[in-house]
Amino acid sequence: MRRLPGLVLLALLAGCADKPVKPVLPEPVSRAGTPRALPPPPPAAAGVAPACVQVREHRDEDYTPGGLYAPGVPDSAPQHALDISGIPEPVPRPEPASRFGNRTPYTVLGKSYRVLPSAEGYVERGVASWYGQKFHGRHTSSREVYDMCSFSAAHKTLPLPSYVRVTNLDNGRSAIVRVNDRGPFHAGRIIDLSYAAAVKLGVDRTGTARVEVRALTGGAEIAAAAPATLPPSPPAPTVQDSAPQIVQVGAYRDRGNAHRIARQLGDAGIPSVQVEEGQGQDGPIWRVRVGPLAARKVEGVLATLKELGLPSPRVFSE
Fold first, then answer.
1. Mean pLDDT in the chain?
2. Of 48, 180, 210, 251, which one's alpha carbon is 20 to 30 angstroms from that of 272?
3. N- to C-terminal Cα distance for the chain?
4. Is 278 a residue whose pLDDT tops 60?
5. pLDDT higher than 90, residue 67
6. What pLDDT score was predicted for residue 229?
């Protein structure tokens, strides 16, 4: 009888031997309740620019309907600098209204907002801000994924999606962005720019800026926003040529855009800026040019243009 407890223990162990053991999975959050940093990206993401890698895990419980997303977590710029020279601005085009994000009215933080029936004729001046790494990879109000490395924006009342041109009234820089999110829900702000758009406009350095937001809806507005189609031209000589050089910053279908860029260049200290009218394949165009310049001065002008977010000039001899 004294051996009975040992026999019972052996029988119980034998009965459990063929049962799978449930693995212990790592907790998605720390014991303090704060989100863990995501592990290094898999090899498939090796081509993603360092500034554009998602670094935060997004959880449903971080968002409360009618409130703000993770209000206790500060937003930030990416750790690495973002080169926007290879990021194209969106081309405005007609799109159907999103199934999500267009409910009207809607309420956030106790305040009600009504979505505009159309973006037609919308122009407003006010303060812009930007949002970045905290929201990168999270769903926007339209259920698209927020990509801080694309040209997009959040707006409280424009239909989703909409296309707008945002112009920084302090430095003259502008960018076309696609509005696919709601916000900013801070008093006195009219638009929240993606981080890439903020870099293009120089708002990443100041945090906020006075801007004009102009909707691009009609055919004429969209055509003016699109890059001009230039006639074929011979290959441009290299900067090392000894002859005086001309730097063509861009060609625009809209005269106002051309003169705005020219003023921006003048404010940046670039000399000999000219706006010349010409003829493109689709009608009149206005070319913004700098020069003629001595060849040794061209590299400095090109560097300044890149800093202004104008990375694709053409250089040719006078």
1. 79
2. 210
3. 111
4. yes
5. no
6. 46
Cα(64)–Cα(110) distance, integer angstroms: 13
202 located within any domain: yes
Domain that holds residue 310: 245-317
- The amino acid at residue 148 is M
Instruction: Give the torsion through C-alpha atoms of 77, 78, 84, 87, to 10 deg.
Output: -110
Q: Regarding predicted confidence, which is higher, 180 or 270?
A: 180
Residues 219 and 171 reside in one and the same domain: yes
Instruction: Look at residues 160, 85, 151, 164 and name the one whose alpha carbon lies nearest to residue 121.
Output: 164
pLDDT tens per residue across span 103-139:
999 999 999 999 999 999 999 999 999 999 999 999 9
> How far is CA 148 from each of CA 52, 84, 125, rounded to the nearest angstrom?
7, 11, 23
More reliable by pLDDT, 7 or 67: 67
The 8-class DSSP code of residue 157 comes to S
In this model, does residue 238 exceed pLDDT 70? no
Q: Are residues 65 and 159 in the same domain?
A: yes
**Total domains present in the chain:** 2
Q: Residue 146 in contact with residue 102, Cβ under 8 Å? A: no
Residue 290's CB is within 10 A of a number of other CB atoms, namely 25
Q: Tell how far CA 258 is from the center of its chain.
A: 23
Whether the CB-CB separation of 198 and 152 falls below 8 Å is answered with no
Put simply, whether the predicted model's pTM sits higher than 0.85 gets the answer no
Residue 105 falls within a domain, yes or no? yes
Question: How far apart, in whole angstroms, are the C-alpha atoms of residue 228 and residue 284?
Answer: 9
191 neighbors 166 (Cβ within 8 angstroms): yes
User: Do 203 and 253 reside in the same domain of the chain?
Assistant: no
Contacts of 108 (CB under 8 A, 6+ apart): 66, 67, 68, 182, 185
Q: Cis (ω within 30 of 0) for the bond into 271?
A: no
For residues 277 and 286, give the distance between their C-alpha atoms in angstroms, rounded to a whole number.
4
**Domain identity same for 217 and 254:** no
